[in-house]
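ok so i was messing around last nite and threw this chain in just to see what happens. nothing serious, just curious
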Amino acid sequence: MRRVSPGLAVFLAAGLLLAGCGGGEPKKAGPGRAAGRTATPTSAAPTPEPTSCPRGGELIKAVEIPAVQSDPVRIPETAVGGQRIPAVTIPGVDIPAQRVPAQCVEHRPAPGGCLGAISIPGTSIPGVTIPAVRIPGVKAPGIDAPAVEQEAVSSEAVTQPAVTQDEVCQSKPSEEGEYVSSVYRASLYRASLYRASAYRASLYRPSACNDKNECIPSVTVPGVSVPGVSIPGVSVPGATLKSYVAGPSQVIKGDDSIAFNIEADVLFDFGKADIKPAAAAELKKIVESLGKEVPADAPVQVDGHTDAKGDTASNQALSERRAKAIADWLATEGGIDRSRLKAAGYGETKPAFPNTKPDGSDDPGGRAKNRRVVISAAR
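result:
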């Protein structure tokens, strides 16, 4: 079984490659075809597959399926009772190589206090067919040798569907000092997949002679085997966000992540995106913690949030400007490489506290806690 860290995922493309057969004289070899072998054209080129996966992801490697080939069998020309029996070439088998493309596990981004949804994409192994084969019969003076044949043998395509786990988030506290319990996102597993082997038995036409001791030779077409193909199972381990006590600033630690939740009023004036000079001390503490808690090259996510007061579009724009302002500060003042930083705004869409009281009236305290910035990174 292969264990992978969550990452973004990509699709699976797989084609069905078949081989055909026929009798008669050998055809001239064309581009990509060996003389005396038959094969159907390959399917259209698949969509490009990933060679690496985005943040936190590990590549699910491609599976190569080797080509299968057998040589043509030539029956020489002969003569019986003055009758010419022409030469015949029985085509060999030429099944092109197949490939199950590489993939990534999709790990959707989520704000601090949440574990993002994950998805292991579906996969399939294309089917394969060993074509039918026929040794033609011969009718000549004193000889009646019937044709013999073997039917085509196929191993059908097999598919494993995608599997997913939804986003999970910690509860939204209603006041400072409230205990917020931990949350757990269960592990995810896509089972292994196997395409059975296929075998076309050998074929034999015995020799035959007339009373004048004129004979046709025996003919043997060897058996052809296509091995079975396996794709290992893929597993994403479970993840946990630990419990904490709500306050104006929290550190939320998970098994493989850390997030710093800072109320925006500590960082900005109301409705503004200019960082207060007094906020530098809080941001410096976060930079120090990041230096101790996460790898030096780990990506750092900055998410901006607002309350629900005012115009939705304006709130979205404000959250984006605030997230960018913090990311810029972390780069210019905090010494974090800018290539590690990514900023996003969620506006009023993900409140941490109720914006109104149970009776429907405005809750300024709750709204203040919803105005926040969350800085997070993988540990």
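not much to say yet. Residues 312-332 form the longest helix (21 residues).
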